[in-house]
Structures are given as structure tokens and as C-alpha cells.
Amino acid sequence: MLIDVHGTVPWSDWPMPVQSSPVRVTLEHAGQVFVVQPGHITDSGWRYEFRKHLASASQPFEVVAIRQVGWTELPWGVMTLWTLMVAAGMAAWSAWKRQRSARRRAEELLRVGQVARLNTLGELAAGMAHELNQPLTAILANTQAARRLLQDDPPDLTTAVQAMDQAAGQARRAADVLGRLRRTVEQPGPAPSGQGVELAQAVHNALDLLEPECRRRAVTPSVHMAQKVSVLAERVALEQIVHNLLTNALQALDLVAVGERQLTIDIESSQGMGVLRVADSGPGIALDILPHVFEPFFTTREGGLGLGLSLCETLASGMGGKLSAQANVPRGAVFVLALPLAPGP
Q1: Which end of the chain is more exposed for a tag (fewer CB within 10 A), N or C?
Q2: Domain boundary among 43, 72, 101
Q3: Mean of the pLDDT values across residues 85-106?
Q4: Residue 199: which domain range?
Q5: Cβ atoms 327, 334 nearer than 8 A
Q6: Rounded to 5 degrees, what angle do the CA atoms 320, 322, 327 make?
Q7: pLDDT tens digit string along 181-211?
Q8: Angle, nearest 10°, between helix axes 199-209 and 235-253?
Q9: CATH code of the domain covering residue 268
Q10: 67, 69, 23: which is closest to 46 by C-alpha?
Q11: Is-contact 100 107, C-beta < 8 A?
């Protein structure tokens, strides 16, 4: 029996135009293929295939529908429009993110600037308290000593005059520190160019102020200088650094026996720099602590603020120099201050 496949299809209900539809529809059985709709099949593109067995057991046909989509059939216009819309959306989103990031960055910079100013004011106040504490204490001690000497019968005028001279020297040092801090606040910006200052003179001035401290500790500083060394520095800042280094050395010597206390100061020039070395025979600085001695508020001394060495390093850097610390041999610590040499006459 011959069956006309085309005659069995209700073409009035067929959802596709038979001759122009790109979908190929066939009935397949035992290797035989009966074409219901030819479609358009090519060798390129994307192939989509649908298969379904007919429900009748007497007619074990398999309905096969194939759709081959080629490059020319793609909706390029719609795809291009969609791509442009997505690109525009992503560009707008990216611009919004950049704008938000820039706004947050500006707000963060403003906040950081405010915090930096507050930190600067706090460091300035702490530095002022640290630097003025010693001269004010010395002024009080000298004036009280002079008062007791003047109340003696007979009064010791010579010693009283020496005590008052030392008090006056400490008062001048306090005034110089305040003047330098005031210039820092009133004229922020690059530090003024330094002038030629002799390292030996700065050391002499500091030792003169610390003479009572040395005498009380039974310490005789030893100063070694092969030649006169003049450096480019701000005089008050340099004397402040030297004073702090010598004070720290004297405080370190409190921790050793009197007979073992040694304070050595070396002045020399090397590779265009004037070098000042302050060495003590105290207990020294542990190797794990040595990298942190110049950090603000880091201290190993009970009751210390941890600002002295930090301020000294800041002052040295501001004058184009460097302050470093190392272990002394056989015991103690060495602080090395290097500043640019002043030009010759």
C-alpha cells in the first residue's frame, strides 16, 4: 500500500509556509526518510534538531524537525541596537561609579587633611610640652637654689649668681623653642635655608646647660674633634637635637654603676657631611627595639612621652640631614647625626 505523506497532512492547520519556511520536517523509519517540508539546510551556522516518536505502534515513524540558523539570518540590527544600549548603560554605570569614587576620595582627603591638622596640632602641643619641660624644671631648680643661697648667713653670692645665669640660659632656650614652634605654625611650608653653625659650639652650649645633670651623675663628657666642623643648620633646632641626645644618654647612664658611666662625643666630617656621634655606656637598646626608637610615642622609659627622638629625627630631616641609632661596643648606644657641611668662606 502506498501512502501519500503530503496528502495526510492537514495543510490548512500547518503553522508554516511549506515552500519558504527554513524548518525541515521529515518522517523517518528504518533508514527511510519522507520529506514533509524541505526547509533550508546549509553547512554553516547553528543546527537545532527536534525528534519525537509517533504514538501509534502500527506506524513507528519518527518526526524530525531541523532548523539551521546561518550568519545572514541573525538579527544584526536588533543585536547592534541591544549592544549599543548595553554599552551605554555600562558607560553610564561606570561614569556614576567614577563620580561616586571621586566624591568619596575627595571626602576622604578632606577627612585625612583634618585629621592630619589635628595630629599636627597634637604633635606640636606634645613637642612643646616635651621640649619646655626640661628648661622650666631647670629654671625652677636654679631659682630655688639661688634663693636658698641668698638666705644663707652670709649669702653665697657667687654661687647664687651662677645659678641665676644658668636659669637665664634655660629661659633663653625655652624662648628659642617657642619661637621656632611659632614660626612653624605661622609659616607652614619649606623650612628656611640653614646657616653655618659649628657643631662644637652647639655641643658646648648643650653641655653648659646640662652641667648640673652631669655633675649630679658624676659623668665627665669626653669630646673628640680633629678639626672645626661647620654645618648648614638652624641653630636652635641643632642645639635642641644635641640637647635631647645628651639628655637621653645621661638618663641611660642612670641604669649603670657610677664607675661604669662614660659619655663620649665625636665630631668629624665625612663625604660632605658633618657627623656628630653621641655614645654612652648604658644598658643599650635591644635589637628588636632599635628600628622603632624614632617612632612617635614609642618609649622604653617609664613616664616618657616618646617624642624626643621622633622630633629630633624630624628636625634633622628638615635640615637635609639624618639621625640614626646603633649599638655601642662593648655596651651602650650610639646616636649619629649627619648634616650637610656649610660652604667654606
Answers
A1: N
A2: 72
A3: 90
A4: 193-340
A5: yes
A6: 170
A7: 666 555 444 444 568 899 999 999 888 878 8
A8: 50
A9: 3.30.565.10
A10: 69
A11: no
Beta strands in the chain (DSSP E): 23-29, 32-37, 46-53, 62-69, 195-198, 222-225, 230-233, 263-270, 273-280, 322-327, 333-340
For the record, the C-alpha cell of 273 comes out as: 657631611
Cβ neighbours of residue 145 under 8 Å, at least 6 residues apart?
A: 159, 160, 163
Distance between CA atoms of residues 17 and 23, nearest Å = 10
Q: What nine digits make up the cell of 112? A: 585625612
Confidence at residue 43, expressed as pLDDT on a 0 to 100 scale: 74
Q: Judge if pTM exceeds 0.90.
A: no
Q: Which amino acid is at 8?
A: T
Strand partners, 235: none
Q: How many structural domains are present in the chain? A: 2
Say how far apart CA 218 and CA 35 lie, in whole Å: 119
Largest CA distance in the chain: 155
Pick from 116, 198, 169: which is nearest to 177 by CA?
169
